[in-house]
Amino acid sequence: MNFKYILLLTCFVCTIINSIHADDIPIDNDSIKMRYTAREVVIESFKQNSDLSVQPISASILSESVIKENNITNIKEVTAFVPNLFMPDYGSKMTSPVYIRGIGSAKNAPSVGLYVDGVPYFDRSTLDININDIDRIEVLRGPQGTIYGRNTMGGIINVFTKSPLKTTGTNINLSAGNYNTYQTGVSHYGNVDNKVGYSLSGNYMHSGGYFMNKTTEKRADPIDAISTRARLSWRIMPRLTANLILAYEYSDQDGYPYRIYNKETREVEDINYNSRSFYRRNMSTNGLNIEYVTDNFKLGSQTSFQFYDGKQGLDQDFSPIDQFYVDFYQRQQMYSQEFNIKSIREDSKYKWQFGLFGFHQNYFQINDVDYRTTGKHVLQNVHNPTEGVAVYHQSTLNDIFIPGLSATFGIRYDWERTKSSLIRTTKDPGVEPIIEPEVKVKDHFSQVTPKASIQYSFNRDGLVYFSATKGYKTGGFNNTADEDKDRTFDPEHSWCYELGSKSSFFDNLLYLDLTLYYIKWNDQQISQTKPTGQGFLIRNAGKSESKGIEFSAQVNPLRNLNFQLTYGYTHAKYKEYKESETTNYDNNYLPMVPQNTVAISANYTIETNQRWLDNIVLNAQYTGVGKLYWNDANDIDQPFYGLYSGKISFVKKLFSLDLWTKNIGSKNYIAYYFKSSGDFVQRGKPFTCGVNLNLKF
Fold first, then answer.
1. Full-prediction pTM beyond 0.70?
2. pLDDT tens digit sequence for 489-500
3. Residue 117 and residue 285: Cα distance in Å, rounded?
4. Which 8-state DSSP code applies to residue 150?
5. Which residues, 6 or more positions from 607, have their beta carbon under 8 angstroms from its beta carbon?
6. pLDDT tens-digit profile of 444-467?
7. Which of 57, 188, 477, 647 could form a Cys-Cys staple with 660, CB 3.0–4.6 A?
8. Mean pLDDT for the stretch of residues 67-92
């Protein structure tokens, strides 16, 4: 069916349903067991005043129960459970590309922001995080720069951990699966007189790897990872609260199961390289949040510090012949401070908030290319400090002209200053090292990002809205550029227009969320492989556009049965992109952007009411992604593919035993593609299964 007819039909159905009043239809409330996850979360965040389901924002919420039921164990597995969200598996934690509505980045700074308990994660090497023992994940689609600032052109992912003022007890989790995979986690939450809350958690995970390296006859992608988190919440006074959060992660992985790919025959060769390729990361993330609440407003302060260092060793020719080997070291120190003041009276016709944000980021990297056939080494040392400030405001007027009609206006001003210094050293056997003159460049960027929306609320169970938002992503440097003309790239800008509807019906028996969007942006930052085949450059394309639809539904037909459906369609193309005088990509699809994302899950609870067993919970999932193109030329693609997974849980009060499977049938698909000295791909993970044991006391 033609896409425009699907849109018209969907809008028509939603309009008809919106006209139905729940009070007119008798519902047996006793027959419905509520699992209304769309509105399950009402906890306020640092910048949001209320539940996202009543705001004019295209958003998805994954609660703790949804994450557990669907056996989501890492941030990348959120793909498809959120419409138009795609996180390809790069192979290691060094790079975690994130795309929303076609906007994303595989190589430079992220275009989708990540915040954990209000702490910003600015670098692409920090996004692949542990998600054990969290309260919820919120995904806001579309530009969020007015409130969240830099590098949120595609959207924002907010992760919230559990508060010890709301959770108590000890949790133990043990998991084991095929491919020599096992995991253990322990957490404890307590408080004193409901004034001082404390929590401590630790997690260890090991995987033996899924793919065999033909040359070494060992698994190419094993990983060991450990993480800890501590939180102290202190209700200093009835109106004053402080939260201190400390987190540390360490991972050591051989995470590059790459294979040579023949794009003419679509044949994939075996993993076949001789030198160990690895990535090790240390990361410490810390935040202090202080909030003071009055009857009319809330004043908040968020102080953050993040440190990480990463060491990569890469057999860059990915062959059994010693040609190139790259040692790459990176280190970041990031400090940020934000102040926010906002009104909190829900009965007020005027709501407002103001914010002030500042940050300083130090970034260092050392790149050592070993030409093993000659013994030559080329070392590049880069120092790239960046700092910036921003001020923002947002106002909402309620019940303007008629009851239920509201308007929101926001504006933000960002200013950044960045520098880069590069020292290149060439070492040849038997020859004195050649140290080239230091190359220094600096730049600054500033931008105003406005936002406006209007919404109309239907009673208490639905709304429609329209919004227009400007997106912005800062420019930067190609730290390893070979020529002066390639050392910098410009910011990119966008305008996003949304028309959306959110509705619940029949006493929350049915929930529907529909969004249509159109994005037009200029100077898109494009990653291109360097002519040498070693490394990449960021350049700016002319114009691009993305348009599509996002749909979510939850149905609770029976007391113990519920269904969830999400679907996203993205049509993202270059409108003006000339790579060279002879190469033009106008009207080509943007790479790494699936045209469809779909997720269907069903949960059924069997109440046994036995002395030794309370419930048996059955969960089935289907996730689908594609079609997507892997490169600008659109001559390498991954057709649409679907994965089937499931879980059976046996529950007795504070004890549960889960039997789970993923990728039933071992669907064969390409999870990632890149071009270096040739075309290389990584296959998706095969069929996996295992058992989880959960204890609470």
1. yes
2. 888 899 999 999
3. 11
4. T
5. 560, 614, 615
6. 999 999 999 999 988 767 899 999
7. 647
8. 88
**Torsion on CA atoms 282, 201, 207, 683, rounded to nearest 10:** -70
Give me the amino acid identity at 524: Q
Q: With contact defined as beta carbons under 8 Å apart, do 508 and 536 qualify?
A: no
Amino acid identity of residue 474, one-letter, is T
Give DSSP secondary structure letters for 516-566: EEEEEEES-EEEEE-TTSSSEEEEE-SEEEEEEEEEEEEEEEETTEEEEEE
Q: Which residue from 343, 450, 449 is spatially nearest to 50, judged by alpha carbons?
A: 343
Token pair belonging to 692: 């989880």
CATH topology classification for 3-696: Maltoporin; Chain A (2.40.170)
Burial of 257 per CB tally in 10 Å (0-12, 13-18, 19+): buried
**CA–CA distance, 672 with 460 (Å, rounded to integer):** 44
Q: Are 386 and 441 in contact (CB under 8 A)?
A: no
Beta pairing, strands 155-161 & 169-177:
unpaired
For 592-651, give the secondary structure using H, E and C. CCCCEEEEEEEEEEEECCCCCCCEEEEEEEEEEEECEECCCCCCCEECCEEEEEEEEEEE
pLDDT at 20 over 60: no
* Residue-wise pLDDT tens digits, 311-327: 999 998 888 988 889 99
Which residues are CB-neighbours of 560 under 8 A, at least 6 positions away? 33, 604, 605, 606, 607
Q: Which residue reads 């009543």 in tokens?
A: 54
CA distance 73 to 454: 37
Per-residue pLDDT reduced to its tens digit, 222-262: 999 999 999 999 999 999 999 999 999 999 999 899 999 99
Of the two residues 558 and 570, the one the predictor is more confident about is 570
CA distances from 655 to 615, 688, 692, 696 (A): 11, 24, 11, 6
- CA-CA distance, 156 to 138, in Å (whole number)? 8
